[in-house]
Amino acid sequence: MQLPPAPARSFASDNFAGAHPAVLDAVARANQGHAGAYGEDRWTRECEERFRGLFGADVTTLLTFNGTGANVLALASLLPPAGAVICTEWAHITVDEAGGPERILGAKLIDLPAVGAKLTPEHVIGQAHLIGNPHHAQPAVVSITQSTELGTVYTVDEVAALCDTAHSLGMSVHMDGARIANATAALGGGIATLRALTIDAGVDVVSFGGTKNGLLAGEAVVFLRAERAGRAERTERTQRTDLADRAVYLRKQVTQLSSKMRFVAAQFLALLEEDLWLRLASHANEMAALLHEALVDVPGVELDGPPPVNSLFPVLPRALIEPLRDWCFFWDWDVARHQVRWMTAWDTMPEDVDVFASGVRAATEAFASKN
Amino acid sequence: MQLPPAPARSFASDNFAGAHPAVLDAVARANQGHAGAYGEDRWTRECEERFRGLFGADVTTLLTFNGTGANVLALASLLPPAGAVICTEWAHITVDEAGGPERILGAKLIDLPAVGAKLTPEHVIGQAHLIGNPHHAQPAVVSITQSTELGTVYTVDEVAALCDTAHSLGMSVHMDGARIANATAALGGGIATLRALTIDAGVDVVSFGGTKNGLLAGEAVVFLRAERAGRAERTERTQRTDLADRAVYLRKQVTQLSSKMRFVAAQFLALLEEDLWLRLASHANEMAALLHEALVDVPGVELDGPPPVNSLFPVLPRALIEPLRDWCFFWDWDVARHQVRWMTAWDTMPEDVDVFASGVRAATEAFASKN
Amino acid sequence: MQLPPAPARSFASDNFAGAHPAVLDAVARANQGHAGAYGEDRWTRECEERFRGLFGADVTTLLTFNGTGANVLALASLLPPAGAVICTEWAHITVDEAGGPERILGAKLIDLPAVGAKLTPEHVIGQAHLIGNPHHAQPAVVSITQSTELGTVYTVDEVAALCDTAHSLGMSVHMDGARIANATAALGGGIATLRALTIDAGVDVVSFGGTKNGLLAGEAVVFLRAERAGRAERTERTQRTDLADRAVYLRKQVTQLSSKMRFVAAQFLALLEEDLWLRLASHANEMAALLHEALVDVPGVELDGPPPVNSLFPVLPRALIEPLRDWCFFWDWDVARHQVRWMTAWDTMPEDVDVFASGVRAATEAFASKN
Amino acid sequence: MQLPPAPARSFASDNFAGAHPAVLDAVARANQGHAGAYGEDRWTRECEERFRGLFGADVTTLLTFNGTGANVLALASLLPPAGAVICTEWAHITVDEAGGPERILGAKLIDLPAVGAKLTPEHVIGQAHLIGNPHHAQPAVVSITQSTELGTVYTVDEVAALCDTAHSLGMSVHMDGARIANATAALGGGIATLRALTIDAGVDVVSFGGTKNGLLAGEAVVFLRAERAGRAERTERTQRTDLADRAVYLRKQVTQLSSKMRFVAAQFLALLEEDLWLRLASHANEMAALLHEALVDVPGVELDGPPPVNSLFPVLPRALIEPLRDWCFFWDWDVARHQVRWMTAWDTMPEDVDVFASGVRAATEAFASKN
What we know:
Oligomer: homotetramer
Largest interface: C-D, 55 and 56 residues
CATH superfamily of the largest domain in chain A: Type I PLP-dependent aspartate aminotransferase-like (Major domain)
Distance between the termini of chain A: 13 Å
Strand content of chain A: 5-15%
CATH topology of the largest domain in chain A: Aspartate Aminotransferase, domain 2
Order of helices and strands of chain A: HHEHEHHEHEHEHHEEHHHEHEEH
């Protein structure tokens, strides 16, 4: 099989991309002399302020190193004693974090089959019979991923409906937003969309992703509404304080407190500057759309509709997968179905898409002519 | 009280310093196009190779974000079911990690009073009566800090004696080497010293510090001898494989697996290049010695002997502490005794020491003349 | 609806039954003067010996208070660092233990859909792709329930095939035998059957139930083969010693060490005397068969084939469930399908079955005439 | 050395004693037909009512199997995220529970040196500097043992002062009352004393011991005041409900929910009937006093003052310890000082004391004549 030279950038994962130059510059600029450790520095304070601006509310932001750490910190803050987490069976927290949530939280993840990796109010209601039964861990937090592990996106109404259901049952809502920027861009972009999707919809805590969107390493856990569900008698302020106050200790406890935190904060400052986070995510989404467009009519490449965010999950002829992967690496998704995942990143170039698409096309043609 | 302008760099902590320029350069150089995620990249492979060279053995190295993460990962690897960790009551793992080890390991830390924050074989032997008693967590890992939280240093013989005792009782030895470079420099420097202190002395796993020695963020857990104590019948190779193999999963589980790991690896590559790690630590140590020299004869400043590494623990007149701290920040150590901690860093300049010493001198003189 | 007087004994659960008189007598006989605490007594030693006789091997037996405790102790002994447990989605450990396994073990339960609540080798093989992937908890223990939560039974061959598959993949096998007596009786009874099902089939550790089979409270964790899977180089003796040795500390750690253990041991001595365990379980099984026979032809009562053990899972007209339950309590099984669970116990009498069956018949007839 | 025949009952531990006949009778009486499982039975309801009467308040009582279970359940209910427990270095939870609290709670025990194993307000205040520091687990629960592991007793005023201090710092108070009956008897006995010591003094949750005081196995966790410290804005009723509600799930989660709970409840009903708990404990205390009286003037037996409760901690000539122990078993306390522990139980008879004292006297005389 004759294939063109591989594209400069892979289609394996947005984690394969490096850091945006503005992010590196910000780190270099923050590398001036001494600064308070563990977040007692001006970059971190400014970053916290920037998140308050982003969400238009007095939110509390705790920076962490990575997404697993952010998720564990968020959940550790939200879980009451004997509480359990409801999520989909595709959720990163249950599939890809090596049992860390179970170990560190000491809590059960109730991971449910879900079309498109999206929870519905019915999923949550379907667990309500466990409430009050002393033989069962008590569903206490609903954790949704936005955009999902299957490249789908919750609409604002869907998130709001989930939050309403969860809160009415005394549960909190966590959003794993490792790719929240891609989801925001997919839904029309803009800060108003972000707020509608999160704080306005009723999400309690969001893991706001950075690493997959152009940082070296960094995520932010943002406490939007600190009220623990069902404690209506407490004031909003007390409630937020309470949750976020405990989270400060939990961050260190779950190993996610950076001593030279200015360097995480500086990365986020760059990302939040002039909507860079949105621009990078929009671009990644567009590159996926371009790839979809280039391949949707290619015989042998089975694709769903245009991708909302930055990933495609094509089904390929089995014989093509290995040669294509050797040429330009990507991951299997569902081996049984010959399904793989292609993912674009903030730095994917249109010419990368062209080259990759032409490689795939060449491979399918060679395959077709042979069969 | 009239004080000179504060020094450019504080004496609060080596965590207040930024990153060495060579480290930042290495990160920027690694920021080229795409690379495999989660350590499947050439920087990480080279870094692992570099650690094998450093220790002169087929060691396994796992990079982490921070020291708490490194310690938890090391201990999680070493602890058998129902095992406990012996350490001093000064140990970072018991004092400064917010209960993370207890939470994540689910294990007791047996934290013992210890002169100079140094464990002795007698400490270990003193816990041996717990072995075999079903009412007690079983002492299984001896964790020592090198250099210690009190700025002292274990000699090679002391480490070897501890390892021998621990191993003879079926325990493993973990070294929290957040400042192992400072300790190595203090003991005469050089790779031979490092090896003598660690792998040759019998240490099983070391947390090899980077952040306090000029990195942005990064530590390395190095499995030197993977044999779990007391399993003599297993081959050396099997044993190392076994421990380090489990550690690979544990790293993700304890939230310490970086997706863009090349950027942690690149930092270490810079640090290990041409003994930068030793040169930076030696320099920090020398600056502490300079500060000691400058102040040892100042009335009112009570100091121990010359500092082995990069920290001093002076006792000051109580009235001086606040004004001096306002002038140039540092931490209390023992409030009851009016003891504080001054710490130098890789970037402390002789002129910083001069200015700081002259400030302290001016303050003590003003104080003396007033009393 | 006119129903006869309710039966003397309910059909809710074998937990509703009390203790067999021989068990109470044994406790009373053991209540003589002083005896060593925490198992250092002659009843416990005799009980351990009795289990060695039962299994025909030098097994190690640790008594516990209850089934959740037994399961957690067994799994804590078997799990390596970062290990996960494979079980069915019906498993008591995942459904009915309130998240205790996740909390105490810090481990993920991989709970799989399974026909008849029975795992197959295919289930285990289907998880093998997780092995070696650092993003996933590592499948390490296969936990099966015998008889299952759905009243089905694994054959000897099925258990052996599961053990072979598990061991070949480096995993261990735990059997939750809360109703192992019922399963043994169902498969033809006798000690030979018990051994064939467990130690001969390759099960590593069994939770041997007592409470549901006529004890006040008491279960036994029996280490049949202490070899951790995949450590072929270690001798059988070393291996058993190792696992069971750690379990001694783990039992106290997981709160399951009884101080006056003679009273748990005495109960088991009575149960193991002259095959009482088998006779009680056979009787319970027979009573369920009797109930099945009495109701299998009743219109409106949907039943599967004759029950292998002591539970039936009938589907009833929805309108009948509440009145019948009010008359003689039992639990819902699947509310959506109007399925309930009827269970017999060691003390269920044929007249209880008669009365219960006649009540059900009367209710269905009343219902039919009304509709 | 010529010693008389050993006494009928040992002086090793109150755990060596069996169950009081009234307790066994109650169990036998409860063994009638079927009863609801997991506490849904009339014995348990009556027992809960009995505890409300005992404490003169609407307390919530959860029965458990043993003391470790009771303590872990109580602490799991009280601990907020990142919370730590303050106790003495003698505390059963830190010394004798095999690391179970650390494993199951995932929390640090701050175990402090304390004269007579008694915490003071100063101990608590001395940890207050940790509050608000993100590097430290947050002191959240003060756990005291009454009577203590050293056989001392907190006065009512001492408990009240500890509770006041703890609450003023936002902490809760747990009392490990494995021997609360002995303490109550020592302080003048009576229900008024019990209430003064616990609910009136401000204790939040008590582990109310049964096993050491004549039960087969059984402890009760009593939630006296469910208010979590520092949440002044919540109503008393809400607060109690909240804590105890979560505890219901936690009991199962920590493996302490008995399926045939009526048999635990029945034991407590017997114990609480006509002050049996007090009478048994008073008797045990008196037997210790008798033993003290009999030996206080014997040369070679170093004793403190009369024992408040049921244990003595004599220092003996080293050469006597082994022969005496072989004659009538007891435990070492402090091997270095040749200190042992002698303990009486509810069933110790005056003639046991006479015989034991005469044996000790004979041994010391033989020893003296030889030296």
